[in-house]
Amino acid sequence: MTLVLLAALTLKIIYVAPSGSDAAPGTSGRPVATLARAVNIAGPGDTIQVAAGDYIVTEPVVVGEDKPHLRIIGQDRAVLRGAIKVPRDLWRRTDDQRIPATVRSHVYSVDLHRLGVQEVPALEQRGMSHPTTVPQVELFVDEKPQTLARWPNEGYIKTGRIIDAGSVRRDGDTGDRKPVFEISSDRPSRWSDTDDVWAYGFWRWDWSDESIPVTSVDGRRVTLAAPHHY
To answer: Where is 6: in which H helix or E strand?
Structure first.
């Protein structure tokens, strides 16, 4: 029993606070600043107490098998965010000539390099037949996720004439013919000089969705970069 009591007395509480420093020992008077640092200095059975506030997490926090029974307790409103705050004063009206002049004054952009973001991961194909992956980067305004720029703004538009349905891999066609079709609108003609255009839709059945990059836009004609699953 004595050994058990002595072991219990060695357990400690490590404090985390937004005002802390990762060079601190993690005491109540000198808390650390990040959960990752607290986990790093914690031992088996210790308790990590996270004070109210927002904490930016830039990489996974790993609790290894060498720290059994570690407890992590959040006080009040302790929030871990895998995001970067974009200050309001960094937004600028865009001068991107690809955006129609009639709406350009309403469009704002921000230089993410000034926030330490060197690269935004590229979009990936998603939908039926594609593996589940980490979601794409999102923009939140007032805690609400924003919709990636799209047309039409709501709902869908039907294709017009199908020039080439492309290889249908689901039916055993292992070729690499790209789907080519027309849209019953001249809107696509505005995208001819735009990079990284994607098409998302239900290409054959109304229960099988898929996003596919666009290779080219020529007037109303759209060519996809890959065959759809169906």
So the answer is: helix 2-9
As to burial, measured by CB atoms within 10 angstroms (0-12 exposed, 13-18 middle, 19+ buried), residue 15 is buried
CB neighbourhood size of 110 (10 A): 16
CA 159 to chain centre: 29
Q: How far apart are CA 213 and CA 148, in angstroms?
A: 15
pTM of the predicted model, to two decimals? 0.69
Report d(CA 230, CA 212) in Å as an integer: 12
DSSP string covering 60-128, please? -----TTSTT-EEEE-SSEEEE-S----GGG-EE---TTS-HHHHTT-EE--GGGGT---PPPP---BT
Rounded CA-CA distance 152/100 in Å is: 16
Kindly give, in sequence order, each residue whose CB lies less than 8 Å from that of residue 94, ignoring residues fewer than 6 positions away: 104, 107, 108, 109
- What are 117-169's pLDDT values in tens digits? 888 888 899 998 888 887 788 899 988 999 988 999 999 998 899 999 999 87
* Token pair recorded at residue 32: 């650390």
DSSP class of 129: T
> Among 195, 197, 191, 194, which residue's Cα sits nearest to residue 218?
191
Per the CB < 8 A criterion, the answer to whether 86 and 76 are in contact is no
pLDDT at 7 over 70: no
Amino acid at 188: P
